[in-house]
Amino acid sequence: MSAFRRISLLAFVCLASFCAGQVFDPADVTRVLGPHWRHMSRASGTVFTGTVISVAAEPTGKQNPLPIAVIRFRVNEAIVGVQPGQTIAIREWAGAWSMHRAMSPGERLLIFLYPPSRMGLTSPVGGRQGQVVLNARGDLIMSSLPEFEASEKENPPIAVLKRCSARNQERADCAPISHFHRITLQQLARAIRNAHGK
Hints:
Blueprint: H1 3-22, H2 26-33, H3 37-43, E1 46-58, E2 68-80, E3 87-93, E4 108-113, E5 131-133, E6 140-143, E7 162-164, E8 174-176, E9 181-184, H4 185-196
Antiparallel strand pairs: 1-2, 1-4, 2-3, 4-5, 6-9, 7-8
Helix pairs in contact: 3-4
């Protein structure tokens, strides 16, 4: 086989692999993000994967009578409304924390946030539906069989999607979804961007 044909074949294989990675099946996205993912995407002002840097209470006073939580993130994968590597701080009414799982420093999330209100406040779209817990690498999303979680060390780029209890928001109370499915973050990001633009 000539060198030109080998290079052409290699280029074709690379292009086919790239295209396959960009294609997403809406049913796969639904299995990971739930049936309202299109609405969540359209309602979001900001969507990204990020690492929680800090969570703090904003001091209350005459100018600011509401209890406000300030959550700082480092953006890992920018999907809508942010830049990669950007550090952002969101302000959320502390009462909204009962609607979603609490966020803690060091945690990695795929998060959908409403556009800021006139008071500059936001929160995850759909409460806890707007938060997807990622693993330490945070580069793939997966819903998993319970026994698969134990093998996460053997497969470091796997994230286990967890549905969390509304009553008890500790990490230990987040149970993996009971079916096995894998979808890349890039495929999810493409689906979210497509839905957001419509």
